[in-house]
Queue: 2 jobs
Job 1
Amino acid sequence: MAANVTKTQGDAPRTGDSSRSNATAGDGSGVVLADSRPALAAEIRVAVPERGIWHDLRAVDIVWRRELIRFRTDRLRAITSLIQPFLFLFVLGTGLSRLAGRGMPPGVDFKTFIYPGVLAMSVLFTSIFSAASIVWDREFGFLREMLVAPVRRSCLVLGKCLGGATIATFQGVVFLALAWFAKVPYSAPLVFTLIGELLLLSFTLTAFGVMMAARIKQFQAFMALTQMLVMPLFFLSGALYPLNGLPAWLSVLTRIDPLTYIVGPMRHEVFGHLAIPHTDLQLLAPNVTWGSFVVPTGLSLGMVALMGLAMMAIAMAEFRKTE
C-alpha cells in the first residue's frame, strides 16, 4: 500500500495538473490532505458587460421584441381585444342611431360621432392589459431573472412601455381601417394624424398600466383594479357624448379624465374632414375648455405626453425598489 502511494507521489503530473497545488502531510507519507487551486481560481473571471448607451438600447430592444413575439403568438388575444370596440360601434352605434340621431345635424350619422371615442377604446384595453404580463412574470419568477440582469431597470420599463404602445397602436390601425363603415373619409392627413394620436395615447396608457403593475403581486388584483379604472376613464372622456352642455359635476369629472384630452382632438380632427357647417362642428366636436379658456389642441396632446412620461418615471422608480 505504501509502495503504491510512493509511486503515485513520484509520478509525473498529468496534463492540466500544473495549475494544481496539492498539500500533503508533513510526515512524508504522500497522503493528500487538501486540494487547493489558487492558480485555477486566479484564472476565473466573471464576465459582466460594461454598461453603456448601446448596451441599454439593446436591453430596450430585447424587451420590446419580446412583447411583439408574445402578441404574435397569441392570436386569440388580438381577436378578443377588438370585439368590444366592434360591439360599441356597430351594435350600440346602430341601435342608438334612431334615438340619438334625432339630435344630430343632417347628414351626420351617430356612428360617425362615436367613432373617435371607440377608436380610443380599441387601444385602451390593449395598452393597460399589456402591462399585466409584468404581474404574470412576477408570479412565475421570470421577472426576478430580468431584474438581476446587468442592465438598468429603467431600460426594462422603457422597453415594456414601447412594446405595449406598439401593439396597441397596431390594434388601433386595424380598427382605423374600418373608418369607411362609420362614414369617415379616408384621407392621408387624417389617417397619419390619428395614428400619431393613437401612438401617444397607447404610450400613456401602457405607462399607466406598468406603474400599477410595479407593486401588484397577484394577477387577479391587477385585473380587478384595471376593470375598476378602465370603464370610468372611457365613459368620462366624452367618447359617447359631446362635452358641451353637461351638468357642472359631470363637466368637472370629464376635465379630470386624461382620456378627454386625446378623444377631443381626435374627434375634432375627424369632423374637420367632413363637409359640415362650422356651427355643427362646434356643436359635435367642441374643444376642451377650462371655464372660459379654450384648451388648444397642442396643449391637450402635450398634457397627455407629460402624463405618460410622469407615470413611466414613477414606474421606473418603483422598479428600482422592487426586490
Note: The two ends are 57 Å apart (CA to CA).
Job 2
Amino acid sequence: MVYPQMLKEYLEYCKYRDNYFKNGKLNLANLRWFYPSLTLLLREFIVSMNVSNFVYPSKGNITDYFKFICNPSSISTSGSSMPVIEAKRMDDSYMEHIYKIAFSGKFEERTAVQNDIKYIFGEVVANIDEHSKCSKSFFTAQHYMNKGFFEAAFLDNGITIPGTFKQKGILKDLKDVEYIKKATEGISTKEGGGRGHGLPSICKIIKDMNGDILIVSGNGALYINGTDKYLKEDMVYSLSDSLKLGGTLVSLRLHMPINPVDFYKDDYL
C-alpha cells in the first residue's frame, strides 16, 4: 500500500517506538529529518517513558535541531521553526511568531490568510480542551521553504476521538477510523447531540486553502487531501494495536501560496 507522506511520518515513529520496546534503546541514528508530527511524537515518548538510553541522529545539524525544537524556552522571533509549546499557551504572542514563520515577511500573503490560520488553530485547541480529557497537549510548526509548504502539528494524550464516542455511547460498534470520519462529518459528542462544527469546518477550510490534514487517534487514521485533484475520497486506515496512538495527533500541511478563504462568508461554520 502507498501511504501519503504525512502518514509515513507517523509510521516511522511507530517503528522507533517498537524498536525501543524490543531493544531498550531509542536509536535515531538513521533519522535524516524531523517534520512537526514526528518531533512531537518522539519528544512526548522520550518524556513520558523517561527514555535515557537513546542515540541521537548521526547528522549533527539534525541533532542540534531536535534539541532546539524540543526546548520550550527557545522561542525566537526569527527562523523557520516553532519550538514545542503547550497547546493551551497559544495566545496572540505565539500566533504572531507563527505568522512570521509561515509568511517570512510577505505582508500581503499574511494579511489574506492569518485570520484563517488563527481560526483553525483555535478550533483545534478548543476541541482538545472540550473533548480529549488530556493531561498534556503540545504544538509545533515549521515552514519548509525549499519544499514549498508550512506544517503544524498538535498532539494530546487524551482519551482519543473514538474513546469520546465510546464513553458517551454514541454510534456503537464502529471501527476507530469510522468514529474519526464521523467526527469530521459533524457528528457531535456534546450533550444534547446535534452537529459539531469545529472539526468539519477545520477540514473543509484546510482543503480549500490548498492543504492536507492527517488525524491519528486510537486505532484509526484519516488523511484528507486538498492538493491532489485526482484524489477525490478521504483516505482511511485501520491501525493494528502495534500502531495504536494513545491520544490524538492532528497534523496540518499548507502548500504555498496558501489560498485564502472567507470562513464567515463561505458557509464553513
Note: The first strand starts at residue 26 and ends at 27.
